[in-house]
Amino acid sequence: MAVGSVELGKGGKVINGPSIPDSKYFLIKQLLKRSPYIHTFKPCLWFTGLFIHIHFLRIYILHIAHTFKLKMAKYSAKQWFVKERTGDSLEVDKTFELVAKELSTDDLTEGQLLAKSLWFSNDPTQRLWINKDSVEGRLYRAPIRNGEPMETYGIYEIVESKAADHKKGDLVFARGHWSDYCVLDTDSKGDPGAFLFPVMGDPTDLLTLGVTGITAYFGLLTVGAATSKDSTIVVSVAAGATGSLVCQIAKNVLGIKNVVGIAGSDTKCELLKKSCGCDYALNYRSPSFKDDFKEATKDDIDLYFDNVGGEILDMALVRMKEFGRVVACGAISLYDDMKGPGGKAASAGISSDAWIQVVCHKIRIEGFIVLQFADQIMKALTDLGTWAAEGKVHLIKDIWEAKVEDVPQGMLKLLKGENTGKLITKVVHS
């Protein structure tokens, strides 16, 4: 056989020469059979095969690289840290610092989630977390120290999971941080405030019925022991997240005869009458507020649900019935350097007249932290959900949108009383 020739056997099978399958390359076999230039095809076929191998090797390498890249996805996160705790009026630039940091999915440990922030809860108690006068061991939780990330409860979307019960795309309610992305831990490590559970339905409903909803529930029904036998209940910051629910439960669930709500504007007072069932809605900024308060409580007070402290607490104590109850839920007038009724600085002191009434009328004042009822939270959420479905409770929300750079403004809105109902920050991502 001449050099460069191909010998074909029966059926066109190559006996001597390049091995070619019987059926797939019939035209090529015919070309090889007839061409006098077969010696020029052999190196071309070899290079063609090499090119095909290199092409598929390149695709394979790109696939491996893409998989590796996904495995080690990195997110450029912007996160607010506490720069300097303050006991004075809050100033964002002095108190907080925005820091850019890189989060890698490869750094997640077992049980951790990398999550995208969707909605943040704005709560007055967050101001206490960063108050320089908050003492370790005397607050219901450890204060946030200088240099630590600012915390919040919120709704987060899982973008990467190393927890068996949570998958990518799930929404969770958790205690996280003021950041666009953060790492969440599914193991609370004994911290009852670090609970994390799935979100169903409208996520903002859970923020409204969540911490603030169960605060209203346990504060009124368990701590305050309110019943339908009570004739007069007074609620301060009544147009806020907790207060608005207290008023509705008192009126629409318990059927209390006289529900008095106190707020900071005529618009909010109108809301209290129309949406919260208040029989009296008093504007504490009105020049006639003290006279209005006496008129609304002319039969004295069975229960005062206190969210504000200061002068209004003093006014309520001298109008309490014998064995009256005061639920000490919050004292927002004392959390920051805000002004109380009449423009005077709020005071934590109780007047001698008010304290004498506490003694002589056997008034019970009791504070509480909602986490002390952690084992009853599901029952509270079930009841609240049922009342909402029955139309007895309406969820009043104030949702504002903000990029992560503007998130601290939500705390200022809250302290200034600019919100109506539950203040929720919707995080806008670039």
CATH architecture type of the largest domain:
3-Layer(aba) Sandwich
Q: Please give the alpha-carbon distance between the first and last residues.
A: 73 Å
Q: Low-confidence parts, pLDDT < 50 over ≥5 residues?
A: 1-15, 17-32, 338-346
What is the share of helical residues?
A: 25-40%
> Rough shape?
globular
How many strand units?
Answer: 17
Q: Identify the CATH homologous superfamily of the largest domain.
A: NAD(P)-binding Rossmann-like Domain
Return the domain count: 3
Give a short account of the largest sheet: 7 strands, mixed
**Average pLDDT score:** 84
CATH class of the largest domain: Alpha Beta
Structural class: alpha/beta
Task: Report the C-alpha radius of gyration, rounded.
Answer: 34 Å
Residues in β-strands, percent: 15-25%
CATH fold-level assignment of the largest domain: Rossmann fold
Structure description:
The chain is α/β, with parallel strands linked by helices and 430 residues long. It folds into 3 domains: 64 residues; 154 residues, Medium-chain alcohol dehydrogenases, catalytic domain (Quinone Oxidoreductase, Chain A, domain 1), CATH 3.90.180; 179 residues, 3-Layer(aba) Sandwich (Rossmann fold), CATH 3.40.50.720. It is 33% helix and 24% strand. The chain is built from 14 helices and 17 strands. The strands form 4 sheets. Strands 5, 6, 7, 8, 9, 16 and 17 form a 7-stranded mixed sheet that branches. Helix 10 links the parallel strand 13 and strand 14. Helix 6 crosses helix 7, helix 6 crosses helix 13 and helix 10 packs across helix 12. 38% of the residues are buried.
